[in-house]
């Protein structure tokens, strides 16, 4: 091929690489970027009657070290709230306070407090006073905070990184405080669950549980998985580490077993690469600090073991021989010995035949 043609093909190839690589990355970033929570709600047509309290949840943080998920709750609607700032105090006082309860066994206990029974909760997580909300400008905001307990989905825990998944369950109900000191159930709903967790994809499945008295409770299951971008990056890193390891092993084995000449710089790559693998492992988003995940067992640890062996062999080649020159090794002598013997026997036969002809 002519040099001018090679230059044109090289320029064309570089142009396509410079054009396709950013375009492909832009397309992948659109599909792999973490998105808001995927919701599956069934809060309509539940047959609830009477007062309905509607909440909105916002997911803020996930701490897998303490198995804790942090959510902020906002009361967004109360269908019994008919009074406003222009109404009389007696009209607003008709809207009774509501206590919102959560299953305390599904929450992370604060301090040393820990529930040791399955009796219904008696301490509300939040007390909502509609009259104070409307009539008193100094009333607190209708927001509250909960820390949910996080569990593994089956056997998929931190050891399954980056294919680990987790879940949290929310069970909540609301009770209206009556003037005689008793409480009656009212319907509680979750209208929307917002929030984005970097490196995770979140699914929320909210449903209602009917009490048979016209009121409903909330049951919500939040499932958390590693995002596709994290899984793709982790797999690419492991595949790349395996390719580098195998190439280095083959290069070192060729020089050691068959005596092929190698540049000294190439044989010094395995010792330096050992520390590079640990640095690449540290870049994995959300990976456990300790080694032992399925990614480590299938990729990082065996590659580091092979690279250590290759580094030891490479250093011995540099120290005890000259890798820049072809040399005979014990393996080449082993394979060449039979061939040398056969050539010698053939030469002896030729000499004997020539001697016989000379005698004749």
Automatic annotation (TrEMBL):
Membrane-crossing residue ranges in chain numbering: 12-32, 233-257, 297-320
Domain of life of the source: Eukaryota
User: InterPro entries, from UniProt?
Assistant: DUF4436
Xref: Pfam families: DUF4436
Does the keyword section mention Membrane? yes
Q: Which UniProt key words apply to this protein?
A: Membrane, Transmembrane, Transmembrane helix
Q: What protein does this entry describe?
A: Transmembrane protein
């Amino acid at each position: 091929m002519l040099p001018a043609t090679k230059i044109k093909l090289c320029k064309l190839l570089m142009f396509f690489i410079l054009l396709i690589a950013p375009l492909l990355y832009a397309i992948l970033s659109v599909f792999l970027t973490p998105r808001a929570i995927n919701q599956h709600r069934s809060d309509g047509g539940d047959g609830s009657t009477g007062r309905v309290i509607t909440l909105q949840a916002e997911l803020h943080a996930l701490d897998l070290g303490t198995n804790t998920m942090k959510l902020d709750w906002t009361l967004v609607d109360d269908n019994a709230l008919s009074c406003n700032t222009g109404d009389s105090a007696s009209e607003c006082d008709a809207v009774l306070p509501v206590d919102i309860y959560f299953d305390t066994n599904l929450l992370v206990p604060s301090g040393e407090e820990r529930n040791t029974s399955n009796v219904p909760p008696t301490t509300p997580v939040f007390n909502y006073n509609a009259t104070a909300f409307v009539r008193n400008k100094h009333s607190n905001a209708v927001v509250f905070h909960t820390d949910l307990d996080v569990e593994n989905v089956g056997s998929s825990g931190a050891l399954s990184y980056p294919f680990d998944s987790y879940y949290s369950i929310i069970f909540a109900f609301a009770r209206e405080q009556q003037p005689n000191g008793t409480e009656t159930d009212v319907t509680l709903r979750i209208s929307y669950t917002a929030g984005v967790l970097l490196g995770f994809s979140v699914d929320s499945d909210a449903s209602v549980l009917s009490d048979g008295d016209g009121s409903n409770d909330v049951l919500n299951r939040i499932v958390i998985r590693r995002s596709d971008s994290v899984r793709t990056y982790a797999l690419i890193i492991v595949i790349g580490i395996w390719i580098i390891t195998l190439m280095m092993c083959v290069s070192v084995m060729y020089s050691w077993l068959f005596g092929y000449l190698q540049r000294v710089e190439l044989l010094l790559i395995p010792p330096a690469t050992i520390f590079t693998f640990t640095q690449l492992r540290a870049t994995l988003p959300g990976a456990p600090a300790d080694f032992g995940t399925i990614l480590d067992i299938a990729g990082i640890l065996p590659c580091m073991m092979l690279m250590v062996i290759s580094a030891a062999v490479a250093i011995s080649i540099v120290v005890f021989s000259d890798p820049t020159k072809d040399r005979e090794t014990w393996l080449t002598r082993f394979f060449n010995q039979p061939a040398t013997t056969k050539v010698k026997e053939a030469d002896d036969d030729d000499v004997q035949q020539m001697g016989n002809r000379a005698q004749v």
